[in-house]
Amino acid sequence: MIEKFSELAKDLDPAVFWEYRAVLIPGLLYNFYVFFLTVGVAVGLGLFVAILRLSHHGVLRAVGGLYAEVCRNTPEYIALIWIYYVPPLLIGLAIGRNISFSPLLAAVIALGLSSSGYFTETFRAGILAVPKGHVEAARALGMSRLATMQRIVLPQAIRHMLPEAMNQFVSLFKGTTLVSLIAIPDLMYEVSLVTMDTDRALPLYTGAALIYFVLILAMTTLVRKVTDRMRKSPRMTG
Amino acid sequence: MSAPASRSDNVVVRIVDLHKYFGELEVLKGVSLDVHQGEVLTMLGSSGSGKTTLLRCINLLEQPTSGEIHVGGSPMGFHIDARGRRRPARGAQLNAQRAEIGMVFQQFNLWPHMTALQNIIEAPMRVRGWSRAKAEDIALRLLQKINLMDKRDQYPARLSGGQQQRVAIARALAMQPKVMLFDEPTSSLDPELVGEVLAVMRALADDGTTMIVITHEIGFARDVSDRVVFLHNGLIEEEGAPDDVIVNPKSERCRRFFAGITR
User: Fold this and answer.
1) How far is Cα B250 from Cα B246, in angstroms, rounded to an integer?
2) Average pLDDT rounded to a whole number, residues A145-156
3) Chain A contacts of B98, Cβ < 8 Å?
4) Which residue of A113, B66, B198, B236 has the fewest C-beta atoms within 10 A of its own C-beta?
5) Around Cβ B24, how many Cβ atoms within 10 Å?
């Protein structure tokens, strides 16, 4: 029994990870690539739908609300698989031709939609936190709705929502580890390929877990630091 | 100082038979009022009298139910929708009209993410399209005037209430409006800070600024205004020179109001 453990311990050799750096590092970079593309989609859609949800039109509000509910209540795993297989099928039927989504496109859409539901709520709360009087002051000076949104509301809303948004970025990054499911060559995918070749699951999966742990720990620490600093800034109050 | 009421060519704000409902509640019941070039008009009345609603109708922060408002000779925009109801004017026309009307709020409403100077130059640059140099030139002169040159790069949170309100006045003045509206500008200030804001407003009045002021500062109303309007229940109850309305009010309601607050 003890012998077996010591054998395993010998096997837990970080050098294995280094040996395969040529595939593992690009794999990790792929995680970041997916992450940044997804952030773009999630934040863009989130802001757009948040503005819908704050509209004067009941119909637009309802559409925005439904969108946010669907996005937030669908597991990312399901969204990923569904987007990868179903919309290409439907579009293919509609145009009478076989099409498919590239795994990267499907991943960015699926993860983007999924977390845009949360960004919608975050943006909405951030915008609602801006006092109505600040908007009235801008409108009374003749500023257009758009200028008021850009110059007065959003800069304040973003400051309000930044701590929450940064937490969502972290969980979005965690979500990118799912994309290996549809054969995107990210770190987990590469690790599983190498494991199949070498049969050394222990060092490789442990190494991958450690890398994610360290990266995400670094991110959350950064989030905490930035949040603390913002709380003390004079721009946040008043 | 008072402009002759007989001449109509120097009317800056003309309000004709203004009605405003909030749901079933009629807050303004037909108010007509002319404010002349260089005139300081003070609106008095208890809360619920409709004075704030009247002021906010002038720049269409509230949409009147019926009646007309002209500022600088042009009607404040509205259009009639398909069902024959009045609808707020939208877009560029309304923005251009609002740019001609300065407003000072009870809660200051400075933008907290901008410094004092940035608060003042924002609308001149965005709305008037002035260069930064021109906007800053005007802003700095205003900061000098309100004696806050040293606070130009401070964020509002670092300013006292009185300082914030003075910056808010400068922000409105930077647009060089035809008329300044003051909605209880000293009501949320600590008593010791009221004086500095009133001093700025007195200086404006002396410069010939056209002003419509809602205030509970009876001293200011009596000393500075050319005319006082007393509102009650959405109607003008009494109107005239400050001494006539404040010292020798004709109506019983007006008398009780002033007896209550000057005691």
Assistant:
1) 10
2) 93
3) 139-142
4) B66
5) 5
Domain ranges of chain A: 2-237
Residue B90 is predicted with a pLDDT of 66
Side by side, which strands form the sheet with B227-232? B101-104, B179-183, B211-214, B40-44, B227-232, B235-240
Its ipTM equals 0.89
Distance CA(B29)–CA(A92), nearest Å, equals 64
Give the CATH class of A2-237.
Answer: mainly alpha
Query: What mean pLDDT, rounded, does chain B reach?
Result: 89
- Return d(Cα B131, Cα B153) in angstroms, integer: 19
Contact A142 B171 (CB under 8 A): no
Structure-model confidence comparison of residues A237 and B42, the more confident one: B42
Per-residue pLDDT band for A237 (boundaries 50, 70, 90) equals low
Residue B221's SS3 state is helix
For residues B90 and A59, what is the distance between their CA atoms, to the nearest angstrom?
Answer: 21
- Determine contact: B49 vs chain A, CB below 8 A: no
Backbone angles phi, psi at B110, to 5 degrees: -70, 150
Question: Hey, of A132, A141, A230, A235, which one would you mutate to test binding to chain B, going by the most B CBs within 10 A of its CB?
Answer: A141
Measured between alpha carbons, how far is residue A222 from residues A59, A155, A166 in Å? 40, 21, 9
Cα dist from B203 to B53, B116, B189, B198, B209, whole Å = 26, 20, 19, 9, 9
Give B183's strand partners: B214
Q: What share of chain B is helix, strand, coil (3-state, %, to 5)?
A: 40, 25, 35
> In the numeric block, which tokens belong to residue B43?
């609106």
What is the pTM (predicted TM-score) of this model?
A: 0.82
Closest chain B residue to A134, measured at CA: B109
Q: Does A156 touch chain B (CB under 8 A)?
A: yes
- For the segment B68-101, what is each residue's pLDDT rounded down to a tens digit? 999 988 888 765 667 777 666 667 888 999 999 9
Q: What average pLDDT does this structure show over A10-25?
A: 76
pLDDT of residue B86: 62
